[in-house]
UniProtKB/TrEMBL annotation:
InterPro entries given in the database record: HotDog_dom_sf (IPR029069), THEM4/THEM5_acyl-CoA_thioest (IPR052365), Thioestr_dom (IPR006683)
Catalytic activity, reaction form: tetradecanoyl-CoA + H2O = tetradecanoate + CoA + H(+); octanoyl-CoA + H2O = octanoate + CoA + H(+); decanoyl-CoA + H2O = decanoate + CoA + H(+); (9Z)-octadecenoyl-CoA + H2O = (9Z)-octadecenoate + CoA + H(+)
Native organism: Amycolatopsis acidiphila
Alphabetically ordered keywords of this record: Apoptosis, Cell membrane, Cell projection, Cytoplasm, Fatty acid metabolism, Hydrolase, Lipid metabolism, Membrane, Transit peptide
Domain of life: Bacteria
GO CC, alphabetical: cytoplasm; membrane
Name of the protein: Acyl-coenzyme A thioesterase THEM4
Length: 177
């Protein structure tokens, strides 16, 4: 279902259909939304965001990061930003790149340690990130200072770092959501 939605997002972004196809598509989508409505569940029971085995944890908003290696010190994976993530002129939207970093760095920060949330994510856009290219995405645990965990990340196209990031993740205190 999520893969089909991702395909739809990419095709819709790249399409310039005639008005009758736009109307027909809108009607079909409204029917699908209505069919799912009776199955609305509380957050804890939803599938989306809870499937760590799926790219982007099954969250269609998150770029589909495929995890290849994952332990307490590093995460390695790959991601291809579809047309859905286009910012302009062939480049990925600047807001989509932190989504990928938060996904891999958040996963790493929360592996083998108590729960933490992103306090900041500092992203450097070094080069244009191309839509449609398979990119390597990496994260590594740098250091821990009390409740603070500092992580580093990089997005690499071939041999070229197109973006890198530093993230601060803070261990939650009891009662913090
Ligand atoms: C088998 C295992 C499976 C695991 C599988 C997991 C898979 C799962 C994948 C999940 C992948 C998605 C992961 C997404 C992760 C999010 O994106 S979380 C959503 C985005 N983040 C948020 O909503 C956080 C909102 N902010 C907050 O809740 C609070 O500000 C925080 C971050 C909890 C910190 O608040 P606080 O507890 O009051 O902390 P506070 O005492 O003020 O500060 C503690 C220290 O941090 C420093 N600090 C705090 N904020 C900042 C800042 N922005 N800048 C600099 N320093 C700061 C303070 O200066 C202080 O430093 P020290 O004085 O100790 O040196």
């Amino acid at each position: 279902m999520i893969e089909a939605l991702r395909l739809l997002q990419a095709r819709m972004t790249g399409a310039g259909p005639p008005p009758e196809t736009v109307t027909e598509t809108a009607e079909t989508l409204e029917k699908l939304a209505a069919a799912l409505e009776p199955f609305t569940v509380p957050e804890a029971a939803q599938i989306v965001g809870h499937r760590t085995d799926l790219p982007g944890r099954g969250q269609a908003m998150a770029p589909p990061v495929h995890i290849e290696e994952w332990d307490e010190e590093h995460v390695l994976g790959h991601v291809t930003f579809s047309r859905f993530y286009l910012g302009g002129n062939g480049a990925v939207h600047g807001g989509a790149i932190p989504l990928a970093f938060d996904e891999v760095m958040g996963r790493l920060a929360n592996t083998g340690r108590p729960r933490a949330r992103t306090a900041y994510l500092h992203v450097n856009y070094r080069k244009i990130t191309p839509v449609g290219s398979r990119l390597r995405v990496e994260a590594r645990f740098e250091r821990e200072e009390g409740r603070k965990r500092i992580l580093a990340g990089a997005l690499v196209d071939g041999e070229t770092v197109v973006a890198d990031a530093e993230g601060l993740f803070v261990t939650l205190k009891p009662g913090q959501p």
